[in-house]
Amino acid sequence: MSDKISLKIEGHSQETAVREIIGICLKRGAVLCDVLPDENYVLSRADESEKNISVFTVISFSGLCGEKTYSHIKNPQKDSRGNMTDAVKLGFYHLFTELFGRKLPWGAQTGIRPALLASKRLAVMSEAETVTALMREFEISREKAELAVNVAINENKLLKKYPRRGISVYVGIPFCPTRCLYCSFVSLPLNKQKKNVEPYVEYLIKETAYAGELIRNEGVTVDSLYIGGGTPTSLNEKQLEKLLCGIEKAFDIQNMYEYTIEAGRADTINEDKLKIISEYTPDNVRISINPQTLNDSVLEKIGRNHTSKQFTDAFSAARRIGFKNINCDVIAGLPTETPEMFESSLKRLILLNPENITMHTMCVKRAARLKSDDLDFSADTAAAEAVASGHRLLDGAGYVPYYMYRQKDTLGGLENTGYARRGKEGIYNVYMMDDISSVIGLGAGAVTKLINDKTNYIERIYNYKDPWEYIKGFDEILKRKKIKL
Ligand code: SF4
Q1: Does the Cβ of 292 fall within 6 Å of ligand 1?
Q2: Would the pTM count as exceeding 0.90?
Q3: CATH fit for domain 158-477, picks 3.30.450.20, 3.40.50.10260, 3.10.105.10, 3.80.30.20
């Protein structure tokens, strides 16, 4: 079976909307055509009148075929494009649920920032009305509508507490010891990059110094700084120290709201590196030590190259050294991990009492799903169960959800949610999620995003992805960074 199905559109131009809902429901891309084949296709046709949009949808897929007409009453609060987008997605979704007997937790909502939908409605509605509106407009489940409202409320509180003063900075280290099965980041295995790491760090420090000077000259405040990747602690002690020292020289780190460093994988962490981090960062530094799961067989399956014991040892070492804000990422829906295994892993993690727990959902590239011609929903169902139990456990343990996003190709179209103890939330995450703050991206694969406050236009400046290209094209990178902040 091809990883694309044929798509014919008539009477509207919402191709992207139909593609998105097909992607989430049928886990396939779509290719536009004029003449439909005999099978594996979708037809989406719309007729618009003053108050209604009538959508006729046909789905032929995985041996099933059906058609349905859905009548959408236009929402006077939305423009004509917004109404058409909702209508064609809902038209498709209704037929999908009938044909395949499945409802999705986020209904016909395909956007990556569901909390933003809640936030807009909360400006004019009560919490209860917003929940009802999300359920009615997009057929989102009550649990997810309530989650979106909760996240929006917490986000808004954070943005009041930490109003944007200037910009944020992202520093990328594109190396990891091995590549995890599900990785979608810029990350190269260390053993194949050994000769590049040292020069990479040198150039990164130069770019950091350049950005620091630019920021100082413009008199702009750095609100938050995030060192991610890859895995920053893939660097050896000397390289890590040089980099953190370079960052300390370039920016006023004591005046930032927040400084975060990912120490992602336990197989890259030791006491010396933790001490170096502690020495060159502010007292309130956030550090991420990510188990993803505490089940060793699953860790092995996903290529993490470390055990749960290595994770708990790294966590204890970080506590001993004095880190007071630790984030731990977990992933629901990992291969071979049942919802029960996920739940017991999360319970063990909660007992360690990290200040932040970020719960992701497993992403599976569409091509990897095409093992058979049948649509298999079992992994989506298991992930949905795991995510639901995760929300219950984290709520019950007193963590608050404060940022959330959805990614393409997550199982069941499910969400990633950042939970934290009150007062320990990561403002960088909220700024990035809602495009609140411009960000200067440093290092291979980093993207600088400049937000024009007047027009909301976002200009993006890309660094080369490959570390070697980054080094070779360094002058060009600096040229691109001659910007007005
Ligand atoms: S640790 Fe993160 S960045 Fe590195 S390979 Fe795994 S998923 Fe990718």
Answers
A1: no
A2: yes
A3: 3.80.30.20
